[in-house]
Amino acid sequence: MSPAVPTWSAAPTPTFSIPGTWHRTKPCRKLIPVALSQRGGILSASGPRIVDVVIAGGGPAGCAAALTLCRHTDLSVMLVEQTGYGEDKVGETLSPAVLPLLDYLGVGEHFRQGNFAPSHAFTAAWGDEHVSTRDFLFTGRGHGWHLDRARFDAGLANAARSFGTQLVLGKRLKQVQKQDDGWRVDLSDDVQVQCRYLIDASGRSAWLGRAVGARTVQDDRLVGISAYFSSSDLPVESSSLVEAIPAGWWYSAPLPDGRMVAVLMTDADLLQASNADRSAFWNEAMAQAPNTRERLGLRTVSGDLQVWPAHSQQLEPSCGNGWVAAGDAAAAFDPLSSMGIGYALTTGIHAARLAASSITQKQDDSEQRQAYADDVRRHVNEYQNLKRSYYSVETRYRDQPFWARRQTATAA
């Protein structure tokens, strides 16, 4: 009998205990198309700029923080994203449970009209060779979506700008310095910004948090090796697939533009220790995944293989006096959990609320910071329990290094 397919992506969105309810929202101005090739944003080296909040990172966490602040407060917000949203990013499947968050941010309808491909189920060959399916219908929330992540992120940034966020593309944060009245932030090209509060949404790098003294605690060495497969006349799969193999596991899913993405998840040291080059390692792993190989069919790989970090980690502490981390910068999870986007949006919202409270109340916010940090730790602990439980289901490869590490973690 096949094991149950993953249920994490249907799990409730994490909740935070920061008190307070906001009722006032601002209307959205007409959405302005984001120029994906835009470089340099809106700033030049003509002198320091002054804003209330600087957000580092324009992914879902940073955009959620910007949208929350601009829709519910009169604080000025600058969102700094070092890319131009033009790079390919590994596609993801968005759970229908995330829609209420998008509605709260005022972008739900824009998302529904975004022409993303529907996902009606997710499938897994996990624990044995048989494929099991879990239909989103049984979650009671409708279908999910296969995302073009670059377009999804650009849409969120576009919405944030339409609500009043200063969107800065193509610049990097180089240095932050604490001042009596806030922070001085140095960007690339000699741009200087002064602000009262910092939100770190810089992803697993947690650049801001580490710059102000926090440290990242890494739990494993997971990496993803991804490739895009050209569109074809073959029938298009409507579900994502997870398939376990000796060296890790595969994820594959269709993209809205007709292509497919396949990602091999393994440990970085296993890839480095292999005598084969990256392509040979990939091909050997593909030969061990009959279900993944079958759904890709005769499609050809477009572009080079890309390796990206996917390890679990936590930032300690996740917030401090005048700053807070959100999304992967606060806590990053194994992609198997499907927690990434939902957690990014949730923490972005609550990081914004913490920032606004700290600025507007002008009093000690240590109790609220402690509540935020406690909630991040609680979510990490809950995630670790789920992670151990699910990896323990796959016992066929327990003698292989990738699985032995996770079986040992389970036993511990």
Helix content: 25-40%
- CATH topology name of the largest domain, in short, is FAD/NAD(P)-binding domain
Major sheet? 7 strands, mixed
* Count of DSSP H/I helices: 11
Q: Using DSSP, what is the number of strands?
A: 23
How many discrete domains?
Answer: 2
Describe this structure in words.
The protein has 412 residues and is of the alpha/beta class. It has 2 domains: 8-115 and 148-218 and 311-389, FAD/NAD(P)-binding domain (3-Layer(bba) Sandwich), CATH 3.50.50.60; 222-309, D-Amino Acid Oxidase, Chain A, domain 2 (2-Layer Sandwich). It is built from 11 helices and 23 strands. The protein has helices at residues 60-72, 99-104, 108-112, 149-162, 207-211, 268-273, 278-287, 290-296, 340-361, 366-391, 401-411; strands at residues 49-50, 53-56, 77-81, 93-94, 117-119, 121-125, 132-135, 144-146, 166-169, 173-179, 182-187, 191-195, 197-200, 215-218, 222-229, 240-245, 248-254, 260-267, 301-309, 313-316, 319-320, 323-325, 331-332. It has a 7-stranded mixed beta sheet. Strands 9-3-2-13-22-21 form a 6-stranded mixed beta sheet. Helix 1 (60-72) runs parallel beside helix 4 and helix 1 runs parallel beside helix 9 (340-361). The model is unreliable at 1-13, 17-23 and 29-46 (pLDDT under 50).
